[in-house]
Fold each of these.
Amino acid sequence: MNFKLSPRLGRMTLALGAAGLLAVGSFGSVYAADPSTSTNSTTAAAVHHFCIPEWAAVKAHPGNADILRAAGDCEINRRFVTLDGLTYLVNHSDVLTADHKTDLLTGGGVNPASFVWEHSGLATLKASIDADTTIASLRTDIAKIAPDYRVYLLVVPKTHIVAAADGSAKVAAKFGPLATELQNLINLAKADGKDVTAAQAKLDDLNAKVGQANGLIAPVAGTVLPLSPADWNSGAAKPVFQAARTSLHQARTLLVDARKDAHQIIVLLGS
Amino acid sequence: MSVRTTLRLGTVRLGTALLGLTLVVAACNGATGTTANGGSGANLGAGSGTAAAGDPGAAAPASAEPTFDLGSLLSPNPTPDATPASTPGATATPPSGTQPTPRPAATTPPVISTTKASSLLSQVDHLLSEMDSELSNADAAANNPGE
């Protein structure tokens, strides 16, 4: 049978094929540019799940090394998925400073539990688990997954607290130009003969509240970033996290009140 | 002292220099357009073409010479029209800028616009919502039952 393609149809096919390749290439480049989709995520679909079926199988077959190894691999893989998600969030964050992005991703000399460090250590541990041949060695290695890395109790909250601190700092910084503008308006109103006593008092209160908020926000990242899995295991990290979140909530309250001051000043001057 | 002078100016630079000199003399005499001896005003600029620059005694007919308002020339901001033309034969026009420059009207009281402040406040609102989101994530992470 002869299959002859007309020249016109051939050109159309070629064009469609080229367009398709371009589309695939563009998706691929976006995928490749995102370090969160690194090939270290060894699960086929890179979807997080809690490994409940794997542990159920271990319980059903306690002496089976392959089943125990599968549970260990599942635990490591779900941590890879979590770290990849955090990496994506940090890379695309609008609130994190560049320095803190570096600190969270690679350590920056201050963070002993960076994503890179965690990923690397877990990959090494996974290789050891895959090479284990006895139930005893498997149990020893699998028991290291949680305490040696503390992905969920240390890395995840640390990331969000640092992001919240940077976000709070951004809010506080925005009050700078706002306060300047409000002071200009108050000065204009005063020059125009208006009574600006109430507005000036509100602005003074705003500035004081923003100053207090800054005092609460400033030390948060510096106290949280150096925490390590060992700090969690010793009980040192948890109160630091708690204090950091309390400070940020107090700062938020102050900033919300400062925002109310600003609104009232605008109302006073606009009336 | 008479400053009535008729000169044939060959260059703009010479004309400008003489103009300046004449202005100084006129100012010293306290005259604006009138010489101390009651003669005609100082006539500068293009002459008839017959008098040499170094011959102040040769006076050209007054009717052929352009006249200038020294008052405007002495003003702090003389208008371009008040500058005498140096090109022979050119006719200088009377300065149009003899009227003093009107002062700007008194400024109106400033209008207080809160537009910029309101815009900054909305930016604060946006950042506060971002902060709330991050704080919620931090709270959720703290309550994570994982290990």
Note: The first helix of chain A runs from residue 7 to 33.
Amino acid sequence: MKIRNQKSAEKNQLSMTSMIDIVFLLLIFFVMTFKIVELEGDFSVRMPLAGTSNNTIDDTELPIKLRMRSNGDGQLVSMSLNEIDLGTDFDSLRGRVVDLIGAPTPGLDSKPPELKIDADYGLRYKWVIDAITAVSGYKDGDQVVKLIENISFDKPRRG
Amino acid sequence: MKVKRKAADIVEGDLTPMIDMTFQLIAFFMVLINFAQTESNDKVVLPSSQLVKPPEKALEFPIILHVARDGGVTIGGEEHTAETLGIALNAEISVIRAEQKSVDDANVIIRAHQDCAFGDVQEIISVAQEKQLTNFALRVKENRQ
């Protein structure tokens, strides 16, 4: 039997507009807050309290002293390692450190080398980090060859 | 002559690929979003070094000090000077002591701006030393070049 007035099948469609709105809002939020993470690491600095170290320090145990001088803008002007002038060349500094600690005396119980940084008050911090990088070691391919790990700072040079 | 009008067709674009792509982008950003940004500070641009690598194990009992270019220190979201830093450090130390640990277990992480005066960093270290803190770590960016 033929049925008249049969309604044409209605399309059931979900309204996508609101969902797309929210999805785009989320997308914009994540794009705006996205920040590429920079990998960070640490240099350890040993700063023992005054009076806690051994009072009987042998002359041979004195730390290597790195003096860093700056100009009025905080830029590095010169460096000297144990009073030997090195200019501003960090490769020379590293080479000098390798010369100093590279050949431990056989038969002697050598202590790990120690370096004390004495820098001008206004010297920009990045120069000190460059110096610490130079004396801490160097990269040989993918391997890191360590030089000096015991690093400390001298008292601030105020005024 | 009577002209039969056709019903106007609704032209609908196929939104499926666009929605697919949008969801993929959202998933990408959600996975990469870094919730550990609490350690960073917008005022601080770290110096970089080729030798540092991200530590395999996080330092125990960290006290993070952000040092801005002008020498201002931020600790726990509060800004201090080298003079008032001691008060903030006392609060951090009391938290460490409340966990039955000593001051020697604390690690002071210094995140200093690359152009700040080195003397400012030394002053901060001096203040921390007055509070019997001895373990310091200078945080720098890894430079892979």
Note: The helical segments of chain B are 16-32, 85-98, 118-130.
Amino acid sequence: MTEFLTAAVGFILAMLALGLLSILRGPGDADRVMAVQLIGTGGIATLLLLGTVASIPAAIDVALTLALLATFASIAFVKKGLSRFEADGTASMEEK
Amino acid sequence: MSVATAFEIVLAAVVLGLGTWTIVVRETFSATVGFVAYGLLVALIWVRLDAVDVALTEAAIGGGLGGVLLLGAAARLWDADLMAMEAPGEVARASAAALSVLTAAALAGAVLLLPDPAPTLAPAAVANAWATSLSNPVTNVLMAFRAMDTMLEKVVLLLAIIGVWSLAPDSAWGGRPGPRHQADPRGVLAFLARLLPPVGIVVGIYILWTGADHPGGAFQGGAIVASMWLLAIMAGLADTPPVSRRSVRFILAAGPGLFLVVGLAGLLFGAAFLSYPPAQAKPLILGIEVAMTLTIAATLGLLLAGAPERSAEP
Amino acid sequence: MSLVRDMMTIAAVSAGAFFFLAGTVGLLRFPDTLTRLHALTKADNLGLGLVVLGLLPQAGGLRDGLKLVSIWLLGLLAGATVSQLIARTAHHGSTR
């Protein structure tokens, strides 16, 4: 079980690396923001598996924190970063 | 090669690759994204090294708040002329590279050349947990054995926010930081900003509370609450408060202030500055941590909001 | 009972890892931002959900189990919102 879960951790991490590779090379800024989302979700999965493998129950708390903060970071990047095409930077990303 | 080692090699390779990419890439936006991703992955490393308190802080600060802070800084540098004029020369870049390599080598040498077993005060910290009846040794060190350092760190945060506020232009002195954000009140962002902050605040309070016996604490909890507050501001559901408002300043000073009061009480009624009587240690520490969480949440939120840009409305 | 639990964990985590793989393949192969976004969010949320499902039998108690499920729900919420925002911005970008 432990071996299997560790292998799963390594596998998901490798998938994360591959996904990162493609996203960070991606042509647009939107692709870069997707990298934050990918790391957030993949990192959470890895953390949960790692916590079970290494018997660290508090890893779930880290995963919880990661979930909230990665969301916040992604939204901040979409709002601040991708709006730089607008001159004043206060434009909303959403149309009414 | 065991499965665990292979996984660690993959993790280290990904982190190193991401770090290198962050340094090499040209656009600051991409570098900031790389920095956030890097922070999130380093949190994984901390968990692997069994340092969960550090992992919590890394996820909160390195992953979320630090990256957004850098993004705000990068946004202010988007003036192309400004960048061209102030781009560092070859000598500056070479010396920066040399200094970084030297620091990294020194750190690596210090870690790799440690005697085995490494000298550590961890057993002493664990052995003295009776003094506070908290079982998380990290919290014990932060709040009891080295409480002075923690208190002074909070004062440093206060100085940082004063420094940021002093960058306000005269017309906006004492006003509201940052622009007024707008978002469709029936849109996705407003929906998330209504749903997530209550959950986030509960999680933040939980992390604060569980720091007594399990990994957690005031700083991580405060950082989570700060990010939820900033989320509400970004969605236009709340506005940044004017920095001249008295309640804002009171909250900012409450953490270090309470710390100082308890410390002086220890001096007057107890053995030394910041000494706690073992019977009241836990409630005292908890009270200080609650005040600190409020202060940290407010400080981090205001730090990311930036210097005042709009004058306070009457 | 323990055997059934372990079998369920292995099955669910394997399925979750497969979805991470599918999502990463999609990221590498799909032609433009919006399709890559689709691959990213759908597969990652499913991947995370299956990993959480697989770790539930190994969880240390009711509280840990509830934390796991809430992490997944947070991930769903965040993924849905952020992908909407990214998609809208990418769409604006491509029609500029």
Note: The two ends of chain C are 59 Å apart (CA to CA).
